[in-house]
Amino acid sequence: MVFSWGNLATKQLIVGMVCHIIALAILAYGVYTFYWLELILPELTRCVGGAVLFVAMGLAPKLFFMPVSQIVSQAENTTEKSALQTYVFNLGIFLMICSLLMEWLYD
After folding, report:
1. Is residue 95, in this structure, part of any structural domain at all?
2. Per the structure, how many domains does the chain have?
3. CA dihedral sign of residues 90, 95, 99, 105
4. How far is residue 63's CA from residue 57's CA, in Å, rounded to a whole number?
5. pLDDT at residue 85, rounded to an integer
6. CA gap 96, 70 in Å, rounded
């Protein structure tokens, strides 16, 4: 197989890998700051939530290459992979909201 930037599958693979690498970097930063610097639970929760959001984006890299109108029109079609992506994305949003509430309650 010849590596080509014009191939859509190759672009989707690269976007998925980049999203997962960013998620790992955010998670590593959160663990590092939690254990070795400050021990702040809302910050760790926020980093885990951000990492989960990037993992969810990496599960559906084709969305980066589709027009918005087509994405909205296909919102009713839920395959097994898109349902998993939706659950993971909702988990990330939930963790981000929890971190904001924890920070608000700790202050």
Report:
1. yes
2. 1
3. positive
4. 8
5. 86
6. 28
- Per-residue pLDDT of 18-59, as tens digits, reads 999 999 999 999 999 988 888 788 889 999 999 999 999 998
Q: Is residue 1 domain-resident?
A: no
Range of the structural domain that residue 58 is part of: 8-106
Q: Which amino acid is at 62?
A: K
pTM: 0.80
**Whether the predicted pLDDT of 94 surpasses 90:** yes
CA atoms within 13 A on the CB side of 25: 7
User: What gap in Å lies between CA 46 and CA 32, rounded to an integer?
Assistant: 13
Q: Distance (Å, rounded) from C-alpha 57 to C-alpha 107?
A: 32
* pLDDT at res. 107: 67
- Say if CB 69 and CB 30 are below 8 A apart: no
Q: What are phi and psi of 18, to 5 degrees?
A: -65, -40
Residue 73 to residue 71: CA distance in whole angstroms: 6
In this structure, is residue 2 part of a structural domain? no
Spatial contact of 71 and 86, defined as CB atoms under 8 Å apart: no
Structure token digits, residue 36: 């070795």
